[in-house]
Specification:
Elements (H helix, E strand, L loop, with lengths): L2 E2 L23 E4 L2 E4 H19 L8 H11 L4 H20 L14 E4 L6 H12 L3 E5 L3 E2 L6 E2 L2 H9 L4 H4 L3 E5 L20 H12 L2 E4 L13 E4 L4 E6 L4 H10 L17 H6 L3 H7 L3 H5 L3 E4 L5 H9 L5 H10 L4 E4 L1 H14 L4 H17 L6 E6 L1 H6 L4 E4 L15
Parallel strand pairs: 4-11, 4-12, 5-8, 6-7, 8-11, 13-14
Antiparallel strand pairs: 1-2, 2-3, 9-10, 14-15
Helix pairs in contact: 2-3, 2-4, 8-10, 12-14, 14-15
């Protein structure tokens, strides 16, 4: 068997791999006529571990829908129906990507591109970003409002592919299996559901330009982005296996759905419904492709987005959970920042509720939480690094609602006295 040996002759032994002599390494392992140094053993071990990781990330370890949803639950609060729909769609998409070549020639699986409908700040972008993180695939976000048809002022549609390639460190194979999230897709709807008679380069024109790359094509993209010109070199990217997720608020889409569901009846026999009688979430569950066409998406575009799901508007309890429960929750982030100054940061339950209530008032969903927290924490974060004796900082409801300073504890922290209605957890 192999053994560690120091040479007794005048000619030094050398590693068969790197050529280092026994005097340049700590140990040299000798087996028959071969030798290997400790450095090369370490490098071999790293290669084996890397190959194991790559194998785990390959098609042999395709996450099940339940595993994907379980991972999403760690980062995204609520939205169970959307997470369930996304998990199944993403699982089926990558099953198609990994196993497509082994299917019979007479069966062709279509792409499972996804449309996410829901109010601003309800987690559409976070869902898409978290999916890419879970699946370890390249990801990029693009805003549909910045896109125009090729040749017009604005950003070419193909530039979203450039962004994906750049985020994949120019690994073309990895990029061709990535995820692209296009936000504000409702902002490029045409006016009405009839055909346009004028040039609409940032609305219907963008939808037309997106058709091919969403469905799957060999796209010629400039490596560094920007406008195309004849003398430029191009990279050919196949978009057939890229998962496209498009999202938007689609304001007033629920009214279109409600009109269809109620039948738009008139006359003495018509059933009268009060406006807003049907909850928004229930309306969004009933979305049909024809509703999206009536809203202003062209039929060809809607046809390439077979999965339609929605996210619900976040209520105060949801926002309170978002502040504390996810792995990257805002409260945890601030606690980590304070910890670097050797200070323990605590929030009372009522303080958390008050932050959520302020975000609800701003009608910006989860996006408003960060702004509320920044304003609350600004003053204490400005002073704290110059207060070395502080050991604990308590944020209660009065800090949030009345702008009072936080409760600070100095030196050895003992039991703190807090109002009975606002005890710290």
């Amino acid at each position: 068997m192999s053994r560690i040996k120091k040479n007794m002759s005048t000619e030094p032994l050398r590693c068969s791999f790197c050529g280092r002599s026994e005097f340049e390494v700590q140990n040299l392992i000798v087996y028959d006529a071969a030798t290997i140094c400790a450095h090369c053993v370490k490098r071999c071990n790293e290669i084996i571990l890397r190959d194991q990781r790559e194998s785990e990330e390959s098609e042999d370890h395709l996450l099940s829908p339940m595993e994907i949803k379980s991972q999403l639950d760690k980062y995204v609060i609520g939205q169970h129906e959307a997470k369930k729909n996304l998990s199944v769609a993403v699982h089926n998409h990558y099953k198609r990507v990994f196993y497509g070549n082994s299917l019979r020639d007479d069966i062709e699986l279509e792409k499972s591109n996804i449309l996410l409908v829901g109010p601003s700040g309800s987690g559409k972008t976070l869902l898409a970003k978290t999916l890419a993180k879970i699946l370890r695939v390249p990801f990029t976000i693009s805003d549909a409002t910045t896109l125009t048809e090729a040749g017009y002022v604005g950003e070419d549609v193909e530039n979203i592919l450039v962004q994906l390639l750049q985020n994949a460190d120019y690994d073309l194979e990895a990029a061709s299996k990535g995820i692209i999230y296009i936000d504000e897709i409702d902002k490029i709807s045409r006016k009405g559901d009839g055909p346009s008679i004028t040039r609409d380069v940032s609305g219907e024109g963008v939808q037309q330009a997106l058709l091919k790359i969403i469905e799957g094509t060999e796209a010629n993209i400039p490596p560094k982005g920007g406008r195309k010109h004849p003398q430029q070199e191009f990279i050919r990217m196949n978009t057939s296996n890229i998962l496209f997720i498009v999202g938007g608020a689609f304001v007033a889409l629920d009214k279109i759905v409600e009109s269809r569901v109620s039948g738009g009846s008139m006359g003495f026999g018509a059933k009268v419904r009060a406006s807003g009688e049907i909850p928004l979430a229930e309306m969004l569950e009933k979305i049909h492709p024809q509703d999206l066409v009536k809203f202003g998406l062209i039929p060809e575009f809607v046809g390439r987005i077979p999965i339609i799901t929605h996210v619900d508007e976040l209520g105060e309890p949801d926002l309170a959970r978002i502040l504390t429960e996810p792995q990257n929750a805002l409260v945890r982030q601030y606690q980590k920042l304070f910890e670097l100054d050797h200070v323990k940061l605590r929030f009372t339950p009522n303080a958390i509720k008050a932050v959520a209530a302020k975000a609800i008032e701003r009608k910006t969903g989860a996006r408003g939480l960060r702004n509320v927290m920044e304003k609350i924490m600004l003053d204490i974060m400005f002073k704290l690094p110059s207060m070395p004796d502080v050991r604990e900082c308590l944020i209660n409801r009065a800090v949030i609602e009345k702008g009072k300073p936080p409760v600070l504890f100095y030196g050895d922290v003992g039991e703190s006295h807090v109002d009975g209605e606002d005890k710290a957890s």
